[in-house]
Automatic annotation (TrEMBL):
Pfam families: PIG-L. Its EC number is 3.5.1.-. It comes from the Bacteria. InterPro entries: GlcNAc_PI_deacetylase-related (IPR003737), LmbE-like_dom_sf (IPR024078). Signal peptide: none annotated. The keyword Disulfide bond does not apply. Keywords: Hydrolase. The keyword Hydrolase applies. This is PIG-L deacetylase family protein. GO terms for molecular function: hydrolase activity. The lineage of its organism: Bacteria, Pseudomonadati, Bacteroidota, Chitinophagia, Chitinophagales. It is an enzyme of class 3 (hydrolase).
Amino acid sequence: MNKLLVISAHSADFVWRSGGTIAKSIEQGAECLVVCLSYGERGESGELWKEDPNRSEENVKIIRKQQAQDAATILCTKIEFLNWGDYPMVISEERTKELTKIIGDFEPTVILTHTAKDPFNPDHPLAFQVTERARLLSCGAGVASAFKNIDPPMWYSFEPHQPEICEFKPDTFVDITSVIDKKNKAMNCMGAQKYLVDYYTELASRRGNHARRISGNKAVKFSEAFQSHIPRITNTIF
Ligand SMILES: [Zn+2]
């Protein structure tokens, strides 16, 4: 069975960057789990703080959790929240072990997360680093190790907000045309970052254009782009 694990630094990132791929994978019979390392309560909740500068951080977390939960329900995925805090996120060995255990328990076939670089965000590269390390601890051991050893999952970065500056080079496009309405509904749950809905709908359309040109498949209208980190192994060149 195909299993998709999405590791999101903040509680909204997974929706903008991979909501269509999550919905499509589930429609295709895959099991999906989203892990939000934090709620993005400090760095990505500007509109909530603008609405009421006196609200507590706990209150922002509650709202952000509900929004992400609602989006996950629309996409039909399971979701977990680790509450690691944001801006700055801190990665300890304990937290690395926590994520390693989640990977071992879920046994994903594919992992999606952030890019290694993001000069405009202090937490996204940390999410990449902890994912890389936890993935290796889950599957890299050639001998008995402290962690459950699973088959190595494929893993990809999803598209960052400013791809060129993050050295993002997409090599995989997922056609999300059939699920774009679902992605739109999920994006609209994220009240804290409403302006991003238009931005990511346009991006999906632009990536759809690229996917159409690359493949010659005129049916592709919307797409999400990813960058792979390990070679794909097949038994045929075709
Ligand atoms: Zn983020």
